[in-house]
């Protein structure tokens, strides 16, 4: 029974991962990521990590994937260019990934870890439950907990700074709002397009 | 199931994410591949936590999830900023910092 559940979860996780990198449309890649994450949460349940599995569903499939879907819908479809800076990179990359898998497997199975080959000790009652996690987070790992909350705060501020409007854009938008009527010609679209073109030249024009 | 099944699956998922990171050019899909690799690491952490009967690995996995969320927020903010400046959404064209 456990083996059946494991192989079902492994198949879902692996199929989702392959679909993420194989599908052309980024929107479908995001949807494949949901399959991957839900299958992985099932595997977490098999490992007696109930709280982590719930957090995986809530945080990833609930929040991060929604963020991805919004951005994928915002930027629309992007065609991938066929130009490669390194010749044959698309052929060599799966080869490198396969060799990475072989090396990792050799490293895992060839090592003398004492835990290999057995199911692990009998877990005590309450292993992986929210109360145990909370006790650990607030007693033994309190500093980690606080640092992580600080990191989240910094990331939120950085996202606002990165994706927010520039100062001149905000000033232009403010003028548009303060005007007596909606005047589409004062919208800062031409200026932004010009700066974008310059950046495009300096970015992609290098041989 | 013995722990090495989970570890081998974790390394397979990690290799898949690495392959996608090398193949794809869209920064959005590259962020998705980073997620795949972080989740593979999480799976290995939880497998070791189960096999050792120690819950520290689960705390580590939760911290990895928070760091992944921060990374996604920054990455998506960069992608939105690139889109608003009409920059090409292709990591090979974004070579303004190349020496």
Number of strands of chain A: 0
Please report the total strand number of chain B as a whole number.
0
- Please tally the helical runs of chain A, counting DSSP H or I stretches of 4 or more residues: 8
Give the proportion of residues in helices of chain B: over 70%
Give the N-to-C terminal Cα separation of chain A.
Answer: 58 Å
Structural topology:
The complex is a heterodimer of chains A (207) and B (99).
Chain A: H1 2-22, H2 26-46, H3 50-75, H4 89-109, H5 130-140, H6 142-163, H7 167-178, H8 189-204
Chain B: H1 3-23, H2 27-52, H3 56-84
Helix pairs in contact in B: 1-2, 2-3
Summarize the structure.
The complex is a heterodimer of chains A (207) and B (99). Chain A is mainly alpha-helical and 207 residues long.
Molecular structure report:
The complex is a heterodimer of chains A (207) and B (99). Chain A has 207 residues and is mostly helical. Chain A contains eight helices and no strands. Helices cover 72% and strands 0% of the residues of chain A. Chain A starts with a helix and ends with a helix. The C terminus of chain A is likely disordered. By secondary structure, chain B is mainly α. The mean pLDDT of chain B is 89. Chain B has three helices and no strands. Chains A and B meet through helix 1, helix 2, helix 3, helix 4 and helix 5 of A and helix 1, helix 2 and helix 3 of B.
Tags for this entry?
heterodimer; A: about 210 residues; mainly alpha; about 70% helix; globular; disordered C terminus; B: about 100 residues; 3 helices
């Amino acid at each position: 029974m456990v083996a059946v559940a494991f192989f079902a979860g492994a198949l879902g996780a692996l199929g989702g991962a392959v679909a993420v990198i194989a599908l052309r449309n980024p929107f479908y890649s995001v949807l494949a990521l949901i399959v991957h994450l839900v299958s992985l949460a099932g595997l977490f349940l098999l490992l007696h990590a109930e709280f982590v599995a719930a957090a995986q569903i809530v945080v990833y499939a609930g929040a991060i994937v929604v963020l991805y879907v919004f951005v994928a819908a915002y930027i629309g479809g992007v065609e991938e260019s066929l130009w490669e800076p390194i010749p044959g990179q698309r052929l060599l990359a799966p080869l490198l990934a396969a060799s990475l898998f072989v090396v990792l497997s050799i490293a895992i199975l060839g090592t003398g870890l004492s835990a290999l080959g057995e199911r692990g000790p009998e877990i005590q009652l309450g292993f992986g439950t929210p109360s145990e996690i909370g006790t650990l987070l607030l007693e033994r790992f309190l500093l980690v907990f606080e640092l992580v909350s600080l990191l989240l705060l910094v990331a939120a501020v950085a996202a606002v700074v990165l994706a927010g409007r520039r100062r001149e854009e905000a000033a232009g938008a403010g003028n548009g709002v303060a005007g007596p009527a909606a005047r589409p010609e004062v919208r800062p679209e031409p200026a932004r397009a010009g700066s974008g073109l310059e950046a495009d030249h300096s970015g992609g024009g290098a041989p | 199931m013995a722990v090495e099944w989970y570890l081998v699956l974790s390394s397979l998922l990690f290799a898949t994410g690495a392959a996608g990171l090398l193949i794809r050019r869209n920064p959005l899909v590259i962020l998705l591949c980073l997620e795949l690799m972080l989740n593979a690491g999480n799976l290995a952490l939880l497998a070791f936590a189960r096999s050792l009967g120690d819950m520290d690995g689960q705390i580590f996995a939760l911290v990895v999830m928070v760091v992944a969320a921060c990374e996604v927020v920054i990455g998506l903010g960069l992608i939105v900023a690139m889109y608003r400046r009409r920059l090409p959404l292709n990591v090979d064209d974004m070579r303004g910092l190349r020496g």
